[in-house]
Specification:
six-stranded antiparallel β-sheet, elongated, two-stranded antiparallel ribbon, alpha+beta, 26% helix, Chemotaxis protein chec
Amino acid sequence: MFGEEYMAFISENKIDNKGRLTLPKETKAEKDEVLYLGLDEGTKELQIGTFHSIFTKIEELNNKLNETDDVFERISISKCILKLKKLIILKLRVDKYRRVLLTNEVRELYDLDKDTIYIKGNMDVINLYSNKEDIKGLSM
């Protein structure tokens, strides 16, 4: 399963001509596993992960929303839910070769249309970078 062990690595990866990114073996991604492309809540860095924490927060907020009759609290909770949902960009499915498909629009929008993508394993997610210089922390 993806990220079942904490990940700490940096790798240089290629996106093929069909837009598929092969995930590093350190991710332990498995065939048909569902992952998400999204943004880190704080840094807004592009990440791939399960995003369990975000989905858990959304579920908790939905429960709170159903329990309250206060209009202002409902508005506040709804805004929080929308903010969290905006962090999830694209649902990904891992194929048997440990690849995920990144759409043309996503690659262009996030400057991932280059041949080489740098991936940093960061706890239970991986961060994607188009430039090696943008990676902070571990060294290659």
